[in-house]
Structures are given as C-alpha cells and as structure tokens.
Amino acid sequence: MVRRLMLAQVLEIFWRSFLLLSIFGLMMGVLWTVIWFGVLENVPGPTMLSGLLITVHLQEITPILATMALIMTYGGPMALEVSLSKCSGEFRPLVLMGIPPEHVLAFPRIIALILAFPGLMLIINLASMLGAFWGITQAIDLPLVEYASDLFLAMEPYMMFMLLVKILLISSALGFFCLYNAFQIPVGAFRRLTGLTRRAMTEAFFYATLAGVLVTVFYG
Amino acid sequence: MADGGPGASVFSWRGLLLGQAGRPAIPLPDLAVWPGQALLALHPDQEILAALALLAAGQAEPQGELLWQGRGLPDECDFQGRLRFARRLALVGPSSGLLPNATLFQSMCLDLEYNQGAFPGQAGRLAMGCLEALGLTALASLDPAGLSGPDSYAAQAALAISRRPTLFVLERPLDLLGPGLLGRVLGAMKEKAASVGAVLVLGRLAAGYPEGQFDRILSLEAIPSKSWRGNDETSILNG
Prior knowledge:
The complex is a heterodimer of chains A (about 220) and B (about 240).
Chain A: H1 2-37, H2 49-87, H3 92-96, H4 101-139, H5 144-154, H6 157-183, H7 193-219
Helix pairs in contact in A: 1-2, 1-4, 2-4, 2-5, 2-6, 2-7, 4-6, 6-7
Chain B: E1 11-20, E2 23-27, E3 31-33, E4 38-42, H1 46-56, E5 63-68, H2 79-87, E6 89-92, H3 104-114, H4 120-134, H5 149-163, E7 167-171, H6 173-176, H7 179-193, E8 198-203, E9 216-219, E10 237-238
Parallel strand pairs in B: 4-8, 4-9, 6-7, 7-8
Antiparallel strand pairs in B: 1-2, 1-3, 1-5, 1-10
C-alpha cells in the first residue's frame, strides 16, 4: 500500500505539473533571448547566451520556478487533502491498528516528491532551452547542433553536483513543510483548513527557496 | 501491553465511574476477561454497549481501574506507547472503521507487512488465506466506503483476525452478522487468541449466539438503561 501510494503520487506530480512547467520553461527561455538581444546587448559580461542559461537560469531560476509550480499544482492541494483527512478522522483507523499515520501517508509523499523533482527540473529546463533556441533563431541563424554543443560546453561538473544537491534539499523541504503543517490540524477543526493550507504553501516555498539559496552560497 | 505478571487478566475494570456532562456518574459492575477466555457481556442499551466498547479498546479514561494484562493505558503523551498498545487490541463495531482509500485486502496486507513483519508476497497469501477461511473473499477488493453495514462489520472482523491482537472486542456482532459467519468469526478469534489472548463480546441478548462459543456470560443490567447518551470518547469524562 505504501509503495503503491508512492508510485501513484509520483505519477500524479508529473501529471499535474507537466503542462505548467513546460509553459514556464518556454516562456523563460524566450524571455532570456529577448533580454539577451535587447537589454543586455551592450552590457559586458557572458559572451554566450548559453553560458547565461546554464549558470543563472538552470542553477537559480528554474529551481525556484519549479518549486512555485509544484506548490501550486501539488503541494498545496496535497496539504489540503491530508489535513482534510485528518480533520475528518480518517487517520483514526490507522491509529487503531497501531500504525503511525505519518509512516503511511506522509513519508511516501515526501519520497515521491524527491523522486519526481529531478524529472520536473528536466522538463522545465528542456522547455527553457527550446524556448531560448526558438528566440535565438528569430534573431540570428544558429544550427541546433551548435546551440546544443554550446550548452553542453557551458556545463561544469560542479554545477551539476550543486544542482543535484539543490534538487534534493528543495524537494525534501517542500514535501516536509507541506505535510508537517497538514498534520498539525486537530480533528474536527474544519475552519482552520484554509489557514493551515496557506501556511503550508508559504512555509514550503520559503524553506525550499532558502535551501536553494544556501546551496548556492555554500558551493558558489 | 507488556505482561503484568503471572495470573494477570487480559482485560479488567474495577470501580469504574462512567462520567458524562450533565448526568450523574454511572458505577459499572466489575469485569475481568482471563487468558483463553471468551466472555459475553450483556446489556439491552446499545449506547451503553458502545461506551463499554470504547472503554475496552482504551479510547476513554474514566475514573477507576482499567487494566490490560495488568497494566494501565500508556500516558497520552506517549504516542509510541499508545501505538504499541493499539496493536494488541482489535475493536470491531459500528464506532470503529476500515481504512479509507484502501480495500480490505490492502488494509490486511498493510498490517501484516508493517506490524507483523511479513514480506509483500507472504502478506498477500496470508490475507487471502484468512479471507478464504471466513468465506469473505468477495469483500477483498471492494471500496470500503461502498460497503453495507453487515459487510463493513464482516470486513472489520476479518481485518481484526489477521492482526492477531491479544484482545478482541466485538460490539453487537449479532446485530450485523449472520449466525454462520458469526460462528466462523468467533471460532477464528478464539483460535488466534489461543491461551494468551481473549475475546470480549458486548451484546444485547444472549439468544442467537452459536452454542458453546462463550466460557462465561455476564449480565451488566445493573447499569441503568438510557442513563448514557453519545458513543464517542469525548463524551466519556472523568467521573
């Protein structure tokens, strides 16, 4: 049952977040090209847009975007669902069986988030690169192979390691704070559902973003 | 529920005062269930039976002595202690329930894997074996929210049997189970309880139960009828 819940949650995370992340990614990719060929045209700095995409966008922007999207599409609704279950006494049969509800209802969801987040980051980053490529080709003639090669060359191993650490910490923080707040609701306190859900979403976003910033500061 | 010592009853209460807001406290006759025993306790009022079921399942703490294997209920702050305590008890009745969003088969497998250390495949075989012995395989994959009262009760009984607790508490089984199924359920529970555990049945009438299932029949009619209302643990206060 626990494994089934975990796999079902992974699929649900992808199902709910795929479209929003793809749209975010495409929009951001196009936005970067607009900035690059517009505002930043005369600013000295990275000579290649690909370097900017890898260092700034992939490392800093997309984790925050993915966190926001995931909280909106999954974290918030999931916190509401779990707190409503607790509020209506649905945890009681588990407690009567001597099984801690968090082992069956919380941990599988947190692990599902940790498992799903790398895939979600891949979706938004791929969408961003495609959006940027489309934007670039509107301004200059650039073969896709050359564009992909530039992106690949701009990646450093330590950047990937830093991104993986960031993904792990962000997804853990997101899952933990959403569910921790959901579990705080007393049985029968239906009036507190919206307040607790709002708090879950706010805290999850804050701590997930903080985790990302701390990783950047520590490794950067 | 660690063993309180040789000769300890599986469950007992003594000098209990059942308190409720706005009503005088109700003194309960003493009760004890010994290892290997099946006890039928009778009272005509179903609300009093529901309150007694909650007491036996450790879901209320009235004034007086309430012991399981010679020990009292773990402290309210001791959540792990309460969970360990809950694993040794199985309450079957209208006031308890099945796991929502999980079929009976999944609930049984969850307990077998989590509490009894069974491997996934092994848990599935044990669960189906239990359901086949009771003739309840038809309930295995049904949504618990869609079960009728009798089916829900039968499913709870099957789940309780697969859990192998020390004390089975059944609330009004004759109201919801047919005689044949009730006989199989009581037989399976007595077999699981063996010489260490016990079965406590709370019912309204002695007639209708299968012959020879109970070692003792105790009348609780000393408790005044209609002196109690409400069947949730919050309505049972310290007397």
